[in-house]
Design a protein that fits this description.
With 335 residues, the protein is α/β, with parallel strands linked by helices. The protein is built from 13 helices and twelve strands. The strands form two sheets. A six-stranded parallel sheet has the order 2-1-3-4-5-11, with helices on both faces. Strands 7-6-8-9-10-12 form a six-stranded mixed sheet, sandwiched between helices. The radius of gyration is 26 Å and the shape is elongated. The chain starts with 5 loop residues before the first helix and ends in a 7-residue tail after the last strand. The model has no long low-confidence stretch (mean pLDDT 90).
């Protein structure tokens, strides 16, 4: 059985197609009697308006595309929720795409969102796709970078100063007396990881007797953190770091699992530990995790606001917003 069309409604209600259109879009232009007759026909026929067609005629939709690096990471889940809430306040909806750190998948979502005529694209890029995003913008779809910055200044962006966050985390370890520091890094093609390492190096450089070792994790996940922890416990105690700074909380939680649940190292007595992001699970870990807090709700909301600025004034100069991170001290460093 085919779906009822606007023409079917008009025939059933004995009105013109334009009258049905006015009832749907400009009800005040139609008398109450006629409006009720059309609405009765809509309900009786089960008519559903083709909003996609309407959006294509208008040249845009009421949706916003959001592409994140890893929806399995609570950091991005929180940003997604905040951006969705902010968009809903103006009658818009956010459609989520998870690139999963895959550049091919990322480009697929960009193409898909452009085909769907979304109002704009919010994106945490996997790699350098400035050229593709510039093309998207030139065709009329606005772009905002999330948890990233625009080196060229072409796009509005919202991010956190990860160099400052890396410095805060490592300085805290140094301030509590740790000197053999190790940074547990995920893939360093992500600027977030390399920036946090740069901050750690800056802090260690301020303490002559301190050292910094980089431990490469295979990913930014709990499992990858457990693998790093398993490698560490195989070392002689004299070769163990006494302070660990992990590139994100998921890595840190994996290290905690390995060191405390599967092995005999104590946190923070033997190894003090700092994570990054301050996800909800940080406070409920088997050893509550000291972490660098990022204002995820503010990031998501600001991304929507930056997009709104671009939509309201297409000639507006792109704007960059950078938030400062915050150290939250818990039991994993003796807090």
């Amino acid at each position: 059985m085919r779906a009822a069309s606007i023409k079917d409604v008009a025939t059933h209600a004995s009105v013109a197609v334009g009258t049905v259109s006015n009832v749907l879009n400009y009800p005040d232009r139609v008398s109450e009697k006629t409006r009720n007759r059309v609405l009765d026909s809509i309900n009786e026929l089960g008519f559903v308006r083709n909003d996609v067609a309407r959006q294509l005629r208008a040249g845009h939709s009421r949706t916003i595309g959001l592409i994140v690096l890893d929806i399995g990471n609570p950091f991005f889940t929180s940003i997604s929720r905040a951006s969705e809430d902010a968009a809903a306040e103006s009658g818009n909806a956010v459609v989520l795409g998870n690139s999963g750190h895959d550049a091919t998948r990322e480009r697929h979502y960009i193409d898909l969102f452009e085909e769907q005529r979304v109002q704009g694209v919010l994106i945490s890029p996997v790699s350098d796709i400035a050229e593709r995003l510039a093309t998207l913008t030139a065709r009329g779809t606005k772009v905002v970078l999330v948890d990233s910055t625009s080196d060229s200044g072409q796009f509005s962006s919202v991010s956190v100063d990860d160099v400052s966050g890396g410095y805060l985390a490592t300085k805290h370890l140094l301030d509590i007396g740790r000197r053999r520091i190790a940074f547990v890094a995920g893939p360093q093609q992500f600027h977030q990881v390399s920036d946090r390492l740069a901050g750690a190096r800056r802090a260690v450089a301020e303490v002559p007797e301190a050292t910094l070792e980089v431990l490469q994790a295979s990913d930014l996940t709990v499992l990858a953190g457990r693998e790093v922890g398993d490698v560490l416990v195989e070392r002689k105690s004299t070769l163990l770091p006494d302070g660990l700074f992990c590139a994100n909380d998921l890595l840190a939680l994996g290290v905690i699992q390995s060191l405390t649940m599967l092995h005999s190292l104590r946190i923070p007595e033997d190894v003090a530990l700092v994570g990054y992001d301050d996800i909800d699970f940080a406070v409920s870990a088997v050893v509550p995790l000291t972490s660098i807090r990022q204002p995820t709700a503010l990031i998501g909301r600001t991304a929507i606001e930056l997009l709104a600025e671009q939509l309201e004034n297409p000639d507006a100069k792109p704007r960059s917003v950078v938030f400062e991170p915050e150290l939250v001290i818990r039991a994993s460093t003796g807090g």
